[in-house]
Amino acid sequence: MMEGAGPAGYCTLDHDGCVTCSDAGIPVRVLSVRGDDALCEDSVGNRAQIAVELVAPVRSGEVLLTHGGVAIGKVAG
Amino acid sequence: MKYVSEFRDAELARAVASEIASLTDPDRHYKLMEVCGGHTHTIYRHGIKDLLPDQVELVHGPGCPVCVLPMGRVDEGIAIAERPEVIFTCFGDMMRVPGSRGNLLEVKAEGADIRMVYSPLDALRIARENPDREVVFYAIGFETTAPSTALTLLRAKKEGIENFSVFCNHVTIVPPVRALLDSPDLRLDAFIGPGHVSTVIGCRPYEFMPEDYGKPCVVAGFEPLDLLQSILMLMRQLDEGRCEVENQYGRVVLWEGNLQALKCMAEVFELRPYFEWRGLGFIAQSALKLSAAYADFDAELRYSTPGVRVADPKACQCGEVLKGVLKPPDCKVFGTACTPERPLGALMVSSEGACAAYYNFGRKSFEKVEIGSKG
Fold it and tell me: Which of B34, B143, B151 to mutate to test the interface with A (most CBs of A within 10 A)?
């Protein structure tokens, strides 16, 4: 069933799935925090600025669940 | 970074599937509804159904926000987009959703300034960069997406950006599930709860399922092993005669949800008294509109949208599919008049729509044989 599935599949910052649907929750690691935004990286190295007010406080190294450019949760280690 | 690959281990998946099979009563038919369109997508993308016994049927729920949007709301968005002063912004999924006079992509081709964005924060940036234009964001989605709209409006208000507004079509997950449970058409045994909605709202809102309707619910993640483990947890509940809400997606979902996100939403939104859902009709308190404090950002007020109602095309059976009464291939126009290239119904538009998932992953012929063989 899962042969051929990449390590990240569509759960990356550049995936082109349905943003309006809940499946587009993307785990990203925080690289640095600046004010209400954080530079984050997904599992294949894509980087993006993510708004982090809704999960503050945030530290470098934490893994966040993002949706539509906004972090909505933290992923437990 | 992990969190994805370890949830796609084929050997583990087969072991969980084997456990599901061992709990399956050969004389019983199990109907489990996955509420969320993202789960539907995972089920077909990864062939989850192939690993389940014939007795376990997965019924697709109403959890694709693009799919449940009534045609009248698409038409109203298009009417705003056609205004010359407007830069209309929306997620890519919305571009091909058919209204009664075409879709946003066609209107863009005719000259309207319609721009696809990944985040409502991108729409706000466009407003900042174009102070002489009016920027409207077409907000759509369940409680997963609503916080990003709310956060964007908080920032817009804080920055005093006046040329930005939101056409709000956010919906909530619990009322349509309750409406389905009240429907005489459908007899379900249990629910697979939406994982990312639950990241925001938590697990408590689903307690009415076991308490009022005697139906178990397991909140599930979106990787193949998440889905299989959630099905196993439901089968265990059914086997042991338990009936409760359980959380399979504990690595992300807290029982109480994201309180900061809920607070932000409470400031920006209020419940509409009722909202129309494609296929399900009007459901009380099932959608959000901007609160009085954010009325200045409300595109419905700014452009006096009339609230038109438009009936779906007669041949379209999205409503029955949304309620789980029909499987996609049973629709009269599935794969013929309605395809992902030229969708007639909304369920064929979004990649998470049940019909598109069936079509894109080559299920249509298989499903017809399978459904026929079940008699």
Answer: B151
| Residue A61 belongs to domain with CATH number | 2.30.30.140
The per-residue pLDDT for B68 is 83
CB contact under 8 A, B46 and A1: yes
| Torsion angle (degrees, nearest 10) of CA B217, B223, B226, B230 | 30
Please answer yes or no on whether B145 and A68 come within 8 Å at the CB atom: yes
d(CA B149, CA B289): 11
A14 belongs to a structural domain: no
Query: Which residues form the domain of A47?
Result: 28-74
Which chain A residues touch B37 with a CB distance below 8 Å? 18, 21-23
Instruction: Tell me the per-residue pLDDT of B183-199, one tens digit each, with 9 for 90 and over.
Output: 887 788 999 999 999 99
Residue B216's pLDDT band (boundaries 50, 70, 90)?
A: very high
Q: How many CB atoms lie within 10 A of CB B43?
A: 24
Min Cα distance A59 → chain B (Å) is 16
Among A15-24, A37-46, B33-42, B303-312, the range with the most confident prediction by mean pLDDT is A37-46
Between CA B93 and CA B42 the distance in angstroms is: 17
> Is residue A18 in some structural domain?
no
Tell me which of B46, B52, B158, B196 to substitute to probe the interface with A (most A C-beta atoms closer than 10 Å).
B196
| Domain architecture of chain B: domains with CATH | 5-64+174-247 (3.40.50.11750), 71-173+257-302 (3.40.50.11740), 318-374 (no CATH)
